[in-house]
Amino acid sequence: MKPMKCMHTLSLLAVSVGTFALMACESVDSEDIKTSGMHATFTAKADGTDTALEAILRVGGETSTTYVALSDGDELAVTHGDETLTLSENHLGDYYYYTASVPTTGADERFVLSFTRAEEDSAPETVATLPAPMAFTSPAADTTFSRGTDAITVTWEPSGSTDDVNIDIAGECFVNVMENLSGDPGTYTFEAGDLESREADEDDTCVATVTLTKKRTGTLDAAFGEGGKVYGAQVRELSLRVDP
Questions:
Q1: E strand or H helix at 15, and its extent?
Q2: Cβ atoms < 10 Å from Cβ of 200
Q3: Is 0.85 surpassed by the pTM of this model?
Q4: What is the pLDDT of residue 120?
Q5: What share of the chain is helix, strand, coil (3-state, %, to 5)?
Q6: CA distance linking residue 207 with residue 205, whole number of Å
Q7: Which residue of 35, 39, 188, 209 lies most exposed, with the fewest beta carbons within 10 A?
């Protein structure tokens, strides 16, 4: 079967990932692609209440916009403890992704993605593991800062892990800032002036969302011949207000 081409303004998706607007994409049926010709992304993201599981299959590597839609007889499922969940298919145009959610967010929780195939080689052992949960300790939610004159120091506990950590702050009245941190220091300061006002919003107040992410690299089943990206993450958000 030939790939189905598309040109969509993926506005709903762009809200969450920021870069998908107005792009060409294709989808192919999994029955037409060998497992060795696929790239797999599998993530387990915990927010303190639930863990969101997501799998995406591509043809052509991580940056490819050719997505794989599962044919009858092919299945993506995740095993967590004694429970196995079949992932649900979602798509925006020809962007296909497969999801489930589980009500657990504990340290070292292990999620095993299996790709079971009717005709081709299966890939039963892609594993993502969660880092330890964490929580912001300061500042208090909804504290107000001046982006021009105030430093914003954010702290969290526990710290000192060996997992990758990044922090970002985003809002409608300033240019978003993201930093990859060295180690897990338990604190980060956005200095006065780091939050640069957008030209049209210099006099505006807006909500700023600070997002802290701890990420642990997982292991990919070797059957995915085009490679992949696997990780478990703890993600926490803190809402503040920022004045000019």
A1: helix 11-17
A2: 8
A3: yes
A4: 96
A5: 5, 55, 40
A6: 7
A7: 209
Backbone angles phi, psi at 43, to 5 degrees: -130, 145
> What CA–CA distance (Å, rounded) separates 18 from 176?
12
pLDDT the model gives residue 10? 44
Pick out the chain residues at pLDDT < 70.
Answer: 1-23
CA angle 140, 104, 98 (to 5 degrees): 105
Q: How many C-beta atoms lie closer than 10 Å to residue 116's C-beta?
A: 13
What pLDDT does 17 receive? 42
**What are the structural domains, with CATH classification, of the chain?**
4-131+216-234 (no CATH), 135-215+237-243 (2.60.40)
What is the CB neighbour count within 10 angstroms for residue 78? Answer: 25
Q: How far is Cα 150 from Cα 171, in angstroms, rounded to an integer?
A: 16
